[in-house]
Amino acid sequence: MKVPFVDLEKQYAEIKKEIKDALEKIFNKGDFILGEEEGQFEEGFAKYIGTKYAVGVNSGTDALFLGLLSLGIGQGDEVIVPAFTYIATALAVSFCGARPVFCDIDEETYNINTNKVEGLITKRTKAIIPVHLYGQPADMKPILEIAKRYDLKVVEDCAQAHGSEYKFKIQNSKFKIYKVGTMGDIGCFSFYPTKNLGACGDGGMVVTNDKDVYRRLLMLRDYGRKSRYEHIIIGYNSRLDTLQAVILSAKLKRLDKWNEMRRKNARIYIKYLEKNENIILPVEESYARHVYHIFAVRIKNRERIIEELQKRGISVLIHYPIPLHLQRAYKELGYRKGDFPVAEKIAQEVLSLPMYPHLTEREIKYVCDNFNRLV
Known about the structure:
This protein folds into 2 domains: about 10-250, Type I PLP-dependent aspartate aminotransferase-like (Major domain) (Aspartate Aminotransferase, domain 2); about 255-375, Aspartate Aminotransferase, domain 1. Helices cover about 40% and strands about 15% of the residues. The protein has helices at about 10-30, 35-50, 60-70, 90-95, 115, 140-150, 210-220, 240-250, 255-275, 300-310, 340-350, 360-375; strands at about 55, 80, 100-105, 125-130, 155, 165-170, 175-180, 185-190, 205-210, 225, 230, 290, 295-300, 350-355.
């Protein structure tokens, strides 16, 4: 049996009929850039997430980059970023002329360690970027409290967490549920094809409740213009294609269902793997609704096991083998091995097993049977 890491064919089969006419309509109109359907998708996405505004851009990286610019982050500023995440989070900070300041992570959730954040704040610190890694929300309550105390912006990196939720404890033991992306100043999403909500190409979105930020984002993504040939600020060419918006609109209707399928698959994985003491399984914190963009486990002797799994037709990946502070791209920041021990430990042990909505229990059992024998 062969089990791919991701299989988008079944996902496409679900939406094929629905998008066929809509795509043909766009081709007939020639309305490919910021068309009517793109605006409709922005409205639909904002409604789904629970914000007033949403601005489509050409990638998740640009969502972070333009989002930071819209908040006034620039040359000489510092932004706190987890040391263990995809490099795009830090690159967006660098693109602004700001300096990423890395923070170690929590050993159970792999998200930013909220106990380490405050000690990194200086006079130059302007923002914190909590990453909702693998689909698990970062612990937002302490992050928001720190940000309020020091007057910092909060930029949620939701690239792997579309539809994930955070349970915010309020008075009298009551809770309020927020979707990720709605708690900070802005939320940034990627629509890379393999995401929980993925396009057929690149795409991204910034969401906010701040009207001024929204207006700046509209200009930043479209050459900084107010009208066709009137340019107010230095802007960029970063617009979400209408074709992608049509595809994403069809998928958005199914996102909750597909996320629940992922959660079901995670429970099946746990059922077959939980008795193996050599495997550290992902956790779902009490405040979180995990959407399992990635089903990441931790093991020893990872390279040997990857090789053996591949021989058996099982595709696995590593998210991520090198923490950000040890990337050559950030050598000039002066970090060294040992600076963030938890991030370094996780990077050496983490392994991502196949995960997508249409994965079957038979396929999961095949993965787990082989995995248990090898670990």
